[in-house]
């Protein structure tokens, strides 16, 4: 009979007084973090969805919940940096290490390098779990790697392993800030002359973003919402409120549909479409990529003040259902269809194309996303974006406006898509910056690029095009 294959766990043995039987399993907080890391690695789960559900299921609260959150999100964010250090300490490529052991090593390494956990506790808890999952030999391997890592701090490891800052400044910044190099390069390209801000952009992805709420126009004002939730009125959007903490889903205003959780950048995008100059607006508005419906709801609430009606198109049935839920009572017509072939009658006055994208502008909200996306995703998405924008232009009447938006600053998804539309279709670019007042530091235009480190929002891109 052969032994377990690579990645396969050995069956648990009954208590026999051996050293292995005396191993202590992970405490609830570390166990939760480890299980979410496994779900992310093996099932492509989203940590920001998996962890809260797991904590609730297991009744983990208070300090344990906070510790589990720090371990999970922190380990996901800096996975590439941890893998480089683990590989150096193990003297082998991380990809050759059993994936279960690798997640355990990441968890232990993060504690050693980024927390105040005592090194002995970080090492011993991880080694014990490796022995429980596999055997003492694997536990010994984990012990050796973590003890090697513990002999130096993160700065020392980085000084040895990072690309040279003089010959490869972007590669160095990417390594130090735990981003794939191609993403750091994309951000530097989008910053252009302001590429000196790259380190601030990358650092911003590691900061926990504040929760933003949008007060629904016609239901209550931002000042009223801020007073009700003990929040702070936003800097730019007239509907924005910054929440100091807590679960926004439990707020009365959110539960009653008077407010929704929405990044201020997204609020500004929806508002910009309503501010674009359109002669003889007949109130026929369209959201061509509507799911899950946050921008649609804001558009519909604003449109209701002038008699405009919004049609929302969403291809995925479950996301179309979310659009219907988020816009209940606002008179939105929800159509489940591919935005490229919606079958709608042309002649819309205002059309929003919040196109599917890499989401590189919201990496701070999705800790594992920076390692999940790959450069090969870009051409596929850019093709889809060009097709959706072309369809939107075809559905817009002469004199009407299309607002193209992405939550990504990658040039192939932003100015590249817009440039293609300007070449191929009867449209002209509007100065989108005027539609985002009072936001400052928007660059040379005519498009708009928001940045977390400048504006406190997701890195939303927007370009307004008028159909000729």
From TrEMBL:
Domain SAM-dependent MTase RsmB/NOP-type, chain residue ranges per copy: 187-468
GO MF term list: RNA binding; RNA methyltransferase activity
Gene3D superfamilies: NusB-like (1.10.940.10), Vaccinia Virus protein VP39 (3.40.50.150)
Single biological process term from Gene Ontology: regulation of DNA-templated transcription
Region: Disordered, residue numbers: 1-28
Catalytic residues identified in the record: 407 (nucleophile)
Biased composition (Basic and acidic residues): 13-28
Binding residues for S-adenosyl-L-methionine: 289-295, 314, 338, 354
Claim: Transferase is one of the keywords in the record: yes
Keywords per UniProt: Methyltransferase, RNA-binding, S-adenosyl-L-methionine, Transferase
InterPro entries in UniProt: MeTrfase_RsmB-F_NOP2_cat, MeTrfase_RsmB-F_NOP2_dom, NusB-like_sf, NusB_RsmB_TIM44, RCMT, RsmB/NOL1/NOP2-like_CS, SAM-dependent_MTases_sf
Function: May act as RNA methyltransferase.
UniProt family annotation: Belongs to the class I-like SAM-binding methyltransferase superfamily. RsmB/NOP family.
Protein name: rRNA cytosine-C5-methyltransferase
Originating species: Mycolicibacter heraklionensis
């Amino acid at each position: 009979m052969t032994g377990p294959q690579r990645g396969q766990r050995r069956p648990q043995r009954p208590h026999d007084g051996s050293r292995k039987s005396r191993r202590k399993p992970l405490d609830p907080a570390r166990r939760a973090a480890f299980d979410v890391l496994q779900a992310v690695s093996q099932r492509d789960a989203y940590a920001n969805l998996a962890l809260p559900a797991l904590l609730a299921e297991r009744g983990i609260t208070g300090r344990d919940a906070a510790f589990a959150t720090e371990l999970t999100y922190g380990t996901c964010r800096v996975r590439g940096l941890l893998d480089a250090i683990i590989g150096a300490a193990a003297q082998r490529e991380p990809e050759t290490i059993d994936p279960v052991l690798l997640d355990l090593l990441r968890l232990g390494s993060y504690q050693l390098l980024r927390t105040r956990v005592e090194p002995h506790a970080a090492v011993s808890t991880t080694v014990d779990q490796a022995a429980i999952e596999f055997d003492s030999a694997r536990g010994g391997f984990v012990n050796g790697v973590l003890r090697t890592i513990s002999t130096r701090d993160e700065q020392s490891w980085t000084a040895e392993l990072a690309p040279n800052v003089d010959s490869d400044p972007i590669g160095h910044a990417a390594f130090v800030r735990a981003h794939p190099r191609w993403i750091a390069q994309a951000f530097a390209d989008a910053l252009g002359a302001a590429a000196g801000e790259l380190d601030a952009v990358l650092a911003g992805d590691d900061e926990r973003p504040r929760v933003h709420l949008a007060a629904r126009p016609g239901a209550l004002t931002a000042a009223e919402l801020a007073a009700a939730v003990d929040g702070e009125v936003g800097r730019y959007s007239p509907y924005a409120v910054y929440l100091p903490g807590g679960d926004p889903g439990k707020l009365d205003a959110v539960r009653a549909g008077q407010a929704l959780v929405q990044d201020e950048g997204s609020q500004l995008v929806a508002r910009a479409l309503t501010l674009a100059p359109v002669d003889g607006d007949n109130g026929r508005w369209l959201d061509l990529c509507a799911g899950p419906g946050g921008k649609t709801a804001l558009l519909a609430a604003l449109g209701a003040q002038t008699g405009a009606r919004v049609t929302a198109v969403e291809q995925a049935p479950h996301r179309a259902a979310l659009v219907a839920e988020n816009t209940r009572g606002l008179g939105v017509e929800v159509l489940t269809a591919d935005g490229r072939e919606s079958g709608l009658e042309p002649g819309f006055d205002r059309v929003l194309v919040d196109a599917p994208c890499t989401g590189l502008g919201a990496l701070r909200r999705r800790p594992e996303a920076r390692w999940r996306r790959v450069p090969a995703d870009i051409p596929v998405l850019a093709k889809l974006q060009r097709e959706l924008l072309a369809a939107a232009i075809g559905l817009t009447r002469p004199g009407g406006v299309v607002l193209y938006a992405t939550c990504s600053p990658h040039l192939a998804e932003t100015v590249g898509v817009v440039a293609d539309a300007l070449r191929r279709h009867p449209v002209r670019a509007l100065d989108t910056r005027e539609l985002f007042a009072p936001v400052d530091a928007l660059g040379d235009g005519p498009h708009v690029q928001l940045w977390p480190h400048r504006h406190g929002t997701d890195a939303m891109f927007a370009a307004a095009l008028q159909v000729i």
